[in-house]
């Protein structure tokens, strides 16, 4: 039977070919057919993600070479992505051996018109705060859009210090163009030693702000607001204060709330079902990367969600100089955790959010899978 089928196959290929050459041709055809295995198909389909290859490093500040604490937002006016960051005075001479170089810092702005693959310096944010001292310090901006108006929550330090003394406040600014920012208020938080605001727009319409409280051992505290103008402070979050840390950054993805904290030697990852009760589930970016400018611990993150994918922005410091990097987060459904490979090429494809108020930090309901059944 096998011989009969083989003979028919040979005859179908070309009846005038010699039998030997027909047999050789059959072997070649069969080899080509069986070479296309399911594994080959899977490899081909997952070879290169959509998007452009992100620069490495993603961004360096051309003025003082101290870009840190990135936050990213889409501008529907300019049709570009904006990145705000602390512009540390890394290359300024004569600042001594202390930490004066991290004070007196403006908020820098860079923009991207290719989905986040490359960024260009624009200018410093024009912060109009009449009560500010002549040499103010601004750290760690968090920028959101609400009802067509942009809101920035940023750390304000009244002056320049050579150590970590001095008060710090979180202030609220608003803007219509992402360039010029007007002071609105100083948030009524626990004490004048608070930094690093991180915001999330919750499903009930309210806003939650997490921050670092330096007066209580660098714990993570939080406050709530119905409208970004009136805040109620709730104090320490036990599940987010297992170790001292800063730069809390929350987002909702894959049916879960996630929050990163910068704990100095890595990023700590937490998970929650309700944005109130948190569990530590991982550590990221502890080990230095291999790419250009990435040979150090990853610090002070931001996360942007875009069409089902999640991109992690962070900064890496080398002596005083620092740069911004980006990598893609992956979700491990079996373990219900996030993973990252900072050494893999990052193909980034940030698309304009359909809902600029929430989508970049809160995955649209149609894209959220059912939450896992087991606990937090």
Q: Can you offer a commentary on this structure?
A:
With 376 residues, the chain is mainly beta. It folds into two domains: 44 residues; 313 residues, 5 Propeller (Tachylectin-2, Chain A), CATH 2.115.10. 10% of the residues lie in helices and 42% in strands. The protein contains three helices and 23 strands. The protein has a five-stranded mixed sheet with strand order 6-10-9-8-7, with no helix packed on it. A four-stranded antiparallel sheet has the order 2-3-4-5, with no helix packed on it. β16 and β17 form a beta hairpin. α1 packs across α2. It is globular and about 55 Å long. The N terminus and C terminus are likely disordered.
General shape: globular
Question: What is the beta-strand fraction?
Answer: 35-45%
In DSSP terms, counting alpha (H) and pi (I) runs of 4 or more, how many helices? 3
Give the CATH architecture of the largest domain: 5 Propeller
CATH secondary-structure class of the largest domain: Mainly Beta
Side by side, the strands of the main sheet go 6-10-9-8-7
How many strands, what sense, and barrel or not for the largest sheet? 5 strands, mixed
As for the CATH topology of the largest domain, it is Tachylectin-2, Chain A
Mean pLDDT: 88
Q: Give the termini distance in whole angstroms.
A: 61 Å
Low-pLDDT regions = 1-17, 23-45, 368-375
- Helix/strand order: HHHEEEEEEEEEEEEEEEEEEEEEEE
CATH superfamily placement of the largest domain = Glycosyl hydrolase domain, family 43
- What structural class is derived from the secondary structure elements? mainly beta
Rounded to the nearest angstrom, the radius of gyration is: 26 Å
Number of domains in the coordinates? 2
How many individual β-strands? Answer: 23
Helical fraction equals: under 10%
